[in-house]
Amino acid sequence: MFKQYCQERCKLIDQQLAKLMQSNNVHEAVIFDAMQYSLFAGGKRLRPLLLMAAADAVGGNGQKYLRIACGLEMIHTYSLIHDDLPAMDNDDYRRGKLTNHKVFGEGIAILAGDGLLTHAFDVMLSQTEVKPSRLIQVIREISNAAGPCGMVGGQAVDLVSEGKILDHETVKFMHQAKTGALFKAAIRAGALLSDTDDVKLAALTKFADCFGLAFQITDDILDVVGNQDKIGKPIGSDIRNQKATYVTLYSLEEAQKMARQVVDEALDTLRGFGPEAEMLRNFITYLLAREN
User: What domain range is 172 assigned to?
Assistant: First the structure.
């Protein structure tokens, strides 16, 4: 059921992305090729899927909001292109394929990221069947989550902290911003677009915080014990880059314990929901078994 849900909605997302990434201008070919290369490089579409699942969980129809969902995926993909650059993480592979700058060069890779980020907002603003005031509210939340008070701010802390010993609070802030903010925006967007009540929105906001934290902890664990073929890039990069992670700050065993505790906490936030929230429950438990 969960696998089928993801496959069906990923197909819808990919079909919509393909339509949104078309260009008939020969002069735009290079930049669109670079943008498409990373956008269709095998991503799990987790953020758009979470938006849809959150909408479904409050009685909405997540499939109605494909354009906002696709905008989230574009923003996420831009961040990966820039993350992989030599000035950032300096990675050669992503999802088992050469990173964007290895194929198109650093300059075009930077522009491909810029193109995806800016195009994302044009796409999201074209979403139909949403009240203008609600659409502005949702896009503003996504913008804040992606910007200096969210993902970009967390990435900056990550970058300047390499080789330094960080305390728990700094690591927590860094990952809440770098990883958790966009997850939170996706889940809240699904709920807001479906006009949920304040009680359910608060519960899903807490769930989103737990999801972002659990995702980051399990990501740190995979960098130590993961299978390189399944992850699609070399493991151990966090240690080589002297990054502060939940594994380096505590231990592998403690990180695994923390992940289980956070997943349990997330499931607890959904007690007031019925079977319509089952996919959200599946998404959070999936994190404990994920291999990439």
Answer: 2-286
